[in-house]
Amino acid sequence: MNRDDKVPQYKLTVVQYCLLAVLLVLGYGMWRLQVLHSETFESLAERNRVREVPILAPRGKILDREGRIIVDNYPSFSVLLLRDQKRDLNADAALISQGLGLSPEEIRSRIRKAALGHAPESQPIVLKDDITPNDLAFIEAHKVELPEIETIMVHRRLYPKNGFAAHLIGYVGEVSEDMLNQPQYELYEPGMIVGKSGVEKSYNDLLMGKDGQRRVEVDSRGRELRHLSDSPAVAGQPLKLTIDLDIQIAAEQAIGDKPGAIVAMDPHTGEILAMVSRPTFDPNAFAVRVSRQEWSRLVSDPGKPLLNKAIQAQLAPGSVFKIIMSLAGLQEGVAQSMNVHCAGGAVFYGRRFACWVKSGHGAVDVTKAIYQSCDVFFYTLAEKLGIGKIAKYADELGLGHKTGIDLNDEASGLMPSEEWKIKNFKQKWFAGETISVGIGQGAVTVTPVQLTRAISGIAMGGLLETPHVVMMDDLQNPDLKKAALEHKRETRVELDPKNWETITDAMARVTLPEGTAPSAHLQNIDLTGKTGSAQTMSNALAQKLGHSHTVGDNGWFVGFAPRRNPDIVVGVLFESGDHGYLAARLAAQVIKAYVDKQRRHELEIRKAEAGDDGPAPTLATIQDKYSPPPKQGSQPQKVAAAASGDIAQNRGSDFDFTGVWHEDAGDEHQLGSGSFTLPKGPPARPAKAAPGMQ
Amino acid sequence: MAKNISFRDFDWVLLALCLVICALGTAQIYSATINAPKFAEAHLHIKQMYWVGAGLALMFLISIVNYEVLLDNAPWFYLAAILSLMSVLVLGRKVLGARRWIALPGGVHFQPSEWVKLILVLAIARFFMELRHRELSLGELAKAGLIILVPFALVMKQPDMGTALTYLPPLFMGLFLGGMKLKHALVMVLLVGMAAPIAYRHIKPYQRQRLTSFMHPEEDSQGSGYQVEQAKIAVGAGGIWGRGLTKGSQTQGSFIPEPHNDFIMAAFAEEHGFVGAVVLLLLYFLVLMRLIHNAQTASDGAGTFVVMGIVAVLAFHVLINVGMVVGFMPVTGIPLPLMSYGGSSVLFMFLALGIVNNIRMRRFVN
């Protein structure tokens, strides 16, 4: 046995060096991870550890000019799928789909879509919006099996029912791929809810608020170990509109289901008091997620319910344009002395142009031409002025230009001119075209808001304001306010006071028995305006396009009260309304609602001042700036007890624009409901407390 | 051969170094299990202290018995080892798809494959001790290989590739010290290189998975690639100074698999940082150097062989385990000696220490 033989020492030394090398390699391994790349691994560990769940900020409420809520929020829950969990999401899809009533394919496709969209893993996917209590119960019961499922409280928009002011308010939706590619949305992230139209869009930045975050520490199974920190959500700012709910309601009621638009504006400031477009849509359908069927129905509807006709419909103004013609004619010194004999038509440039009254108007001056809307007078005037001068005045009044209203996608309309024709058609302007333009036909197109503003400019003696729907002074954001005030610009059109009087006095007679819209006459209100009816297309063209019946003309009316320096201007477009007087009746309702509101307020004050002495004036007898001026040399007007009945009755019932959601879900599924109803008439003043009642 | 032994000659320095590592390990087991719902009630750190206590007793006990007696009986031990491994395959309790443990009365689970390491160290020492010449013939080489191959195959059958691999280092150490020819060594390296692809095809799917995910961890972020990735994150997140005991989020959030056992180094590195990891590696290095010192001072070649066999086993464990945690080695599932939780592992280490001291205390004989 060589049991006592020693092992050579050098071999042990070799082993020692080998071991040293091994430990140096291991030490290097530690150095590599812990010193060289420790920051990378620290952030990876942090991502493992910390789960960030968004806290969504509620959007700001939308209020009317008196602070009454038009758009509110309601709480609802959404299901989120967290993708940063080390779980096989596709494998869990079956259980999730069963519990939430979704198909597993749908869940898998959403996961795939999110993975393809390069969204960061920490960003959860929304699986289902506006869940039911049953869904919520399922999620609570499966917290352990499905740690990747989380619920989140979402504030959803509650819009007025029945499409009330829908075009003005707009709606919200998930920010689209296209929007994200635009520079103004570069700070937005996929999944954010943004305004898609109306003020929801144009004031999105203000309304949107800032989402917060709840940070919790989780373990490898997604169990929450510790609550780390919250960055609270900053709610969006409330937005105060210039809209007066009372006037808006009157406008909504006036137009009913008729296609068209109504715009009511305070011409002193450009504040829009009401804006209605028909047909309308229900923005609540968009509040959660618009269904495919609903969307295709809205998009394919020939009535274009998503179009805000008040700012987007571009149509021939018809006879309303005659007011602009009158301004041009009077300012140019041509119309004053004009006396035209109307025999139901006249020949210009070898072609006969008919007057709408076949039998003719007889002898016509500018005043009669306005209230009787004599076409022959304005054909003649147009011939005398020429397209250049007409275009100049129309241009000054803003036709052919966007008004600059604070809503997106406004249309500009078109005011033709010789230059325009050459530029766009490479053709010379035909003098005959000028004749058509003289009565607001031909190539002239306007939007209702544009026409309303142009007429308001004349009614105001030449002052034109930029229309706007948001109270500029109430804007909370100083930058936005500054920008808004800079944007709002008043322009002045030269208007001789004498011409101003001539035009407005003539317009005041439109609703008198001798005018074109006597049926729109309002008792004790100096309703001033101009009717119009314009062909939408020639009947030949209509047949070519396959319309079985001839398309009715569009009715127009732009009215205001009082006749000079009015407090309200209302523009009405009644599509296929044939006659302007039908549109005038709608405008009359809105103006009456406005004047009555002012008068009720006035009466309250007077009653408080005067005490119980003497007979108190009523809405029908009160004399104020809205009353028609007493006729010279005639009997004082007899006061009719029954003032335009049909209009007055409309105010009889409360207008209810209740916002209710889950209408079809049954009582136990209803997460909540809210409604807001305007009280009838003026707010009741508190009754004097009887002694001893304190 | 009556010899006077004295505990004054006991290697107290070595024992102290080992106990320091044990203390660090126990603290880390405490930290790794305190917040894990699976182990919160198990008090594994207390149990680990009991195991260390038992190990100390066993160590002193075996240091009294003359190692020459152990060597003389090595063939019997070897026979017992083979039998116990066979009995595991027959009687063993199946845990996670592998038969590794035998349930003993009193609720203790015995893992024979750990003890076999020590017996193989003795068997190899005995084999080389009986060889007369300095250069190994091919036949002797084959015999030495066969000694290891039988238990190796039995453990592979359990299957437990990690433990089976730990049987190889004593053989290689023996061959190196026993005078293997360079020519033979080169041929062997070549053969292993050629056999590797064939072996790859015959290992269990999960083992293959581990190897693949070691090569491409990013392709398998859910399975064993996930384990390695999480261990690396833990180590890296520890930084230079560490995040503090019970403060490592990877350890406390159960992101590291088995943070008290095979991946205890990841947990330790996360909570004690680069500084802690280097101190621990240094401790292992000192233990190894101290062992080699004892091998040098052994009274005979047999003692050297035994101690160096233990050095080989220990170094291999450290290399594989720490290498796995820093991403240099595939996941093999072998514990870090003295750190990882587990009775069999602790007892093996202290028995080994006992034998080393046994040899040390008899170094002045002859």
CATH class of the largest domain in chain A: Alpha Beta
Spell the H/E element sequence of chain B.
HHHHEEEHHHHHHHHHHH
Gyration radius of chain A, to the nearest Å? 35 Å
Class by SSE composition of chain B: mainly alpha
General shape of chain A:
elongated
Low-confidence stretches of chain A: 633-694
Strand order of the largest sheet of chain B: 1-2-3
Task: Please explain how this structure is put together.
The complex is a heterodimer of chains A (694) and B (366). With 694 residues, chain A is of the alpha+beta class. Chain A folds into three domains: 9-36; 51-240, Penicillin-binding protein 2a (Domain 2); 245-284 and 307-650, DD-peptidase/beta-lactamase superfamily (Beta-lactamase, 3-Layer(aba) Sandwich), CATH 3.40.710.10. Helices cover 36% and strands 16% of the residues of chain A. In chain A, strands 2, 3, 4, 5 and 10 form a five-stranded mixed beta sheet that branches. Chain A has a five-stranded antiparallel beta sheet with strand order 12-11-21-20-19, with helices on both faces. In chain A, strands 1-8-9 form a three-stranded antiparallel beta sheet. In chain A, α3 packs across α4 (104-116), α10 runs antiparallel to α23 and α14 (321-331) packs across α16. The longest helix of chain A has 31 residues, at 580-610. Chain A is elongated, with a radius of gyration of 35 Å. Chain B has 366 residues and is mostly helical. Chain B has one domain (7-361). In chain B, 68% of the residues lie in helices and 4% in strands. Chain B contains 15 helices and three strands. Chain B has helices at residues 12-34, 44-64, 67-72, 74-91, 112-129, 138-156, 161-165, 168-178, 182-202, 205-215, 224-238, 249-252, 264-296, 301-325, 343-361; strands at residues 93-95, 98-104, 108-110. In chain B, α4 (74-91) packs parallel to α6 (138-156) and α11 (224-238) packs across α13 (264-296). The termini of chain B are close together. The mean pLDDT of chain B is 86. At the A-B interface, α1 and α2 of A face α8, α11, α12, α13 and α14 of B.
